[in-house]
Input
Amino acid sequence: MSAEASPRRRGGGRQRSSGPSLAPIARLENPWSPIEVLRADQVERILVGAYRVLEESGLEFRSQPARDHIRRLGGLVDDETGMVRIGRDLVADALKTAPTEFTLHARNPERDMHVGGRTINFGPVSGAPHVTDLIGGRRYGDMAAFRDILKVIHTLGTQHWQGGVVVEPVDVPVALRQLEMYRAHIE
Output
């Protein structure tokens, strides 16, 4: 086989004779400090509001094991309604355990995704209700469009991750929608 006729090896061990590279995307680092979108007093107002919801109104937890866990940590739990109230001290304790950086490990270590710090990762939008193209114009998302978007994302190789609801497939019943989207991601 001549050098021109033999397929070239690109990232991930795949053989392709033409098309975009599937090599892992280089990691990008943001050299600039984060932009402060909100003033400190605005952030404080948001925090006060969030704590008020957590402490006074609470959140509904439908999972009994989750309610039991929060109760053991010191949260106020009403098992009849499923409502859980969480104090600021509980939130502060949980935040102390959250890492500032972590790695999502891929089967191929070259594709591990580093999250946090100054690392920049690219991924698709999530939760779009509509799709637009030159043939069909603007319309509600469906499963065919969902699969087409996944194919484009995978083929381009410009994203660090692919997942989630890239467009809402309204032609699939709500009770099955998540399962069909997971199937599309796997396939």
Remarks:
- Residues 8 and 37 are 46 Å apart (CA to CA).
- The two ends are 32 Å apart (CA to CA).
- Residues 40-57 form the longest helix (18 residues).
